[in-house]
Design goal:
Layout lengths: L4 H11 L2 H10 L5 E2 H8 L3 H13 L3 E6 L2 E6 L1 H15 L2 H22 L6 E2 L7 E2 L10
Antiparallel strand pairs: 1-3, 2-3, 4-5
C-alpha cells in the first residue's frame, strides 16, 4: 500500500534533524526565500531556521538578499559553480575533460546546423562595448 503524505512528513522529520532539513531545503532553493518559508518547508521552528540560515551565510554557503523589509536567502551560486569545477578537475583527467568539451561542442554544432542558428553574442562584463562568442572550434574569442 502506498505511503500517505502524512507518513512521508513523519518520515522526513523522524529521519533528519531540524538542522539537516533546513540545510536540505536551503541547498535546493531556486529563488530567494524568507526564513518563514524555509522553516515551513523544513517543518522546523523559526528560531532554529533563522540560526541555521545565519550559520550557512557565515560559512559562505548561502547569501542573504534584502528585499524591502524582508531578508531572504539563496545559495551562493558562484561558490556552487566553483565547487562543481573543482570536482570535475579532481575526478577527471585533462584528456577526459578535453574529450567531453569536444563532444559537447560537436553536439552544439549539430544543433546549430539542424535548427539553422548561430551562437549568440555575449557581452563581456569588463567592457560594455566588447563582445565574446564561441566559434565552432570551441575556443572563446573576445
Amino acid at each position: 500500500m502506498p505511503e500517505s503524505p502524512r507518513n512521508s512528513v513523519q518520515s522526513w522529520t523522524e529521519s533528519m534533524s531540524a538542522r539537516d532539513r533546513i540545510r536540505a531545503v536551503a541547498e535546493t532553493l531556486r529563488e530567494p526565500r524568507s526564513v518563514n518559508w524555509i522553516s515551513e518547508q523544513a517543518d522546523a521552528a523559526w528560531s532554529t531556521s533563522n540560526k541555521e540560515l545565519q550559520d550557512l551565510v557565515d560559512q559562505g554557503q548561502l547569501r542573504r538578499v534584502e528585499a524591502g523589509e524582508t531578508t531572504r536567502y539563496q545559495p551562493d551560486y558562484t561558490r556552487l559553480l566553483f565547487e562543481e569545477i573543482r570536482t570535475l578537475i579532481e575526478e577527471n583527467t585533462r584528456e577526459e575533460l578535453r574529450n567531453e568539451l569536444a563532444a559537447i561542442t560537436e553536439e552544439i554544432e549539430e544543433w546549430q546546423a539542424t535548427y539553422d542558428v548561430e551562437t549568440p553574442r555575449i557581452s563581456n562584463s569588463r567592457s560594455p562595448t566588447a563582445t565574446s562568442q564561441v566559434p565552432r572550434s570551441g575556443t572563446a574569442v573576445t
